[in-house]
């Protein structure tokens, strides 16, 4: 009976210690020493070339910070990496221009980025003719 009590007490101590450790970790991540709430963030600036790992600078009153960030190498440079859009399906091919178009509506602007509400993109029409009868 004493062994069970001892094991139960040990299990409770381990659970309490784990909960306290998780709590301290969350508080440390949330508390960075700044009481400023109105941060203004700049764009993500890659360390080399035009994509990959980089940093963004933020300012609030007299304070400034740098955060690590990443620009995917397939991002739409025209829109910026911090503007996220929901795109419609591609339209039909224009015989005059040889291009397809579609529009995107702003879904999310990260880090207070200045984004256009609606954007339009184009791409060349495919020269391949897709076959719809594959099961014959």
How many helices in DSSP terms?
Answer: 1
Shape: elongated
* Mean pLDDT over all positions: 79
Summarize the helix and strand pattern as letters. HEEEEEEE
The residue fraction in helices comes out at 10-25%
Radius of gyration: 26 Å
Q: What low-confidence regions span 5 or more consecutive residues with pLDDT below 50?
A: 25-31
Largest sheet: 4 strands, antiparallel
- DSSP strand tally: 7
Note the beta-strand portion: 25-35%
Structural class: alpha+beta
Q: Report the span from N to C terminus.
A: 75 Å
Keywords:
alpha+beta, 4-stranded antiparallel sheet, elongated, growth factor activity, 136 residues, Midkine_heparin-bd_GF, signal, 3-stranded antiparallel sheet
Description:
With 136 residues, the protein is α+β, with helices and mostly antiparallel strands. Among the domains are: 36-73, Heparin-binding Growth Factor, Midkine, Chain A (Single Sheet); 75-126. It is built from 1 helix and 7 strands. It has one helix spanning 2-30; strands spanning 40-41, 45-46, 52-60, 63-71, 83-87, 99-109, 118-124. The strands form 2 sheets. Strands 1, 2, 3 and 4 form a 4-stranded antiparallel β-sheet that branches. Strand 2 (45-46) and strand 3 (52-60) form a beta hairpin. The N and C termini lie far apart (75 Å).
């Amino acid at each position: 009976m004493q062994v069970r009590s001892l094991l139960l007490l040990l299990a409770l101590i381990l659970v309490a210690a784990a909960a306290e450790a998780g709590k301290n970790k969350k508080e440390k991540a949330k508390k960075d020493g700044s009481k400023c709430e109105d941060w203004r963030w700049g764009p993500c600036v890659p360390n080399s070339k035009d994509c990959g790992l980089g940093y963004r600078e933020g300012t609030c009153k007299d304070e400034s910070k740098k955060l690590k960030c990443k620009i995917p190498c397939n991002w739409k440079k025209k829109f910026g990496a911090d503007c996220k859009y929901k795109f419609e399906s591609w339209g039909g091919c224009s015989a005059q221009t040889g291009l397809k178009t579609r529009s995107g509506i702003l879904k999310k602007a990260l880090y207070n980025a200045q984004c256009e509400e609606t954007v339009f993109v184009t791409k060349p029409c495919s020269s391949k003719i897709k076959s719809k009868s594959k099961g014959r």
